[in-house]
Predict the 3D structure of the following.
Amino acid sequence: MKFIVRLHAEITIKSKGVRKRYGKVLVNNLKSILRRNEVNAKVIWCWDRIEVIVPEQSNEAHSEFAPKSAEFVSELLQRVPGISWFSRSYELPLPEGEPTDFEPIMAQVLNLWQPSIGGRKFAVRVKRKGTHPFRSLDLERYLGGGILKHCEGTRVDLRRPDVEVRVEIDHDTVRVFGGKQQGLGGFPLPTQETVLSLLSGGFDSSVASFQMLRRGARVHFCFFNLGGAQHETGVRQTAYYLWQQYASSHPLKFISVDFAPVVEEILTKIDNGLMGVVLKRQMLRAAEMVADKLHTAAVVTGEALGQVSSQTLSNLSVIDEATNKLVLRPLITMDKQEIINIAQQIGTADFARSMPEYCGVISNKPTVKAQRDVLAEAEQLLDKALLEQVVRQSRVEDVSQIGETTEARVTKLDTVAAVQPEQHEIIDIRSSDEVERKAFNAPNAAVTVRHIPFFKLATAFAELDPNKTYLLYCEKGVMSKLQALYLQEQGYTNVAVYQPSAVAAAE
């Protein structure tokens, strides 16, 4: 099967050299992502498009990859920055003979579109390259007439069609395209400079990180831990998800800074109304130290104008003065609901719902217009060495390794493939959206399967029967292991990880 990939429009209007460079980067990213997901594919740069060719069945004896479905490949392409849209392409040779011998093309169009076009408005669009004894309009009219004849309830609408039937004649080759599937747009990674995103795991910071990834910036994640082990577990999951879904072509870093000592100092030394602004300033100072070590060009935050007291123009101005780094705020003009909607679309909303807003509770009657001289005087009480110390003690890991380091720590956990109904229950910890997209089937009818989303698991687990062993399930296995480790650290011994793939491997 073949997919035709079109570059984002902003890439196509750049100079010839820049367009070629961006295209080559995107080709390499596609190769990396497809290979990481065990898709045996050829990716070919063709200037005006990229062709992704995936064998339906591998003919190579040495091939390590099993054939993948079109739906699987489509899901991968939808998540790669730099792609405007893509389509399946069905190719056939241009029929020989009379100029009006369009019957083989008509047959391919009907085979592809007849099941879905009935009762809808459509338009046929034909583009040609080369010299032919017919016009594009001739073929459009022929195909349109055939669709009207064979597809009940259809009608032509050239201005606002429900469906566009697209055909391309490329010299002696005919390409009949399937439906357009939207990509992310933006620029391929890493065509922009590297940034450091302050990731709390909430709606705002995860969407801001995604926006920068989509724009082609390599994004390292900096987490200021204010909420202990559970908070860090959740944020690590968010970082891993963003990398896995949208940036797996390149390594990203996850930096965890224990900020509890800094918060404690602020609570004991800073006036109540200034606490929120001072905390943000201290975070930016620490972020600058981390950014310098990683050689990043800017710091990214999820702040939106007026969303909370520290995000007024006056406060943002004095907060930015704490650092010499450029501070980027991709969400600055967005409404909260817009941000939540994007989080829902990209898959981080359920992670965000499990994250408490620690920064929001630090100030009582916070100032909305902090004065520079008052801030400067207050911050004289803070220990600069403490900030340097917490940054020096921060933990740095590759985001791609979060799954592998979890695997290394999981040796003390049981991994179960064969479920015993009298002893075990399975807990599907995926989000509701994931469950709707792909249902989980119990290994047999006697096995009980509960659905408890991961963000509710820590609270709900205490109410479960302590005499049962609960097997956590998610599709990739990473989230379930992280959650199982966290529960074990809280003292629960009746938790394990369910890995149905182990059964398939054994068979």
